[in-house]
Specification:
By secondary structure, the protein is mainly beta. The chain contains 1 helix and 12 strands, in the order ββββββββββββα. A hairpin with a 6-residue loop joins β2 and β3.
Amino acid sequence: MEKVYVDHTNRVKIICLKCGLEKNKIVSKFKNTHKKLKAKCKYGEDFRITLDFRKYYRKNARLSGKYFVKGKNETREIIIEDISKTGIKFATLEPHYFSKGDLGELKITLDTPMRMEVRPRVKILWIIDLNVGAQFDNPKLLEKDLGLYLIK
């Protein structure tokens, strides 16, 4: 299954992996459906795609870190699963007591040669069991530290 990134005009460029034929499509009607789509090239080749409407690229990661919950005196070890310019997904290693809307701070060691440490402030957007999605409080402050990391 191929992931296709949707641009700011809700258009995608679909490329058949067999013949290389490219086709541009408007996909705005699929924005909130999370459907896997079936495509077919003019030579009859069927293939499946998923659409990614994210504003920024999300990099898969496997980074260790810690999470500090403001006002709850809670600290947890975490594993960063993916990271983008504006947000992050992580998993706690044990049950936690934070909730959607909580503010906190992460301590992340990047897997770069210099092992740079970043400490973004975050707001929890969603929680599913031990998995957590959060938005950076001030992404501008992280541009310098995360910019190069995200493009490698």
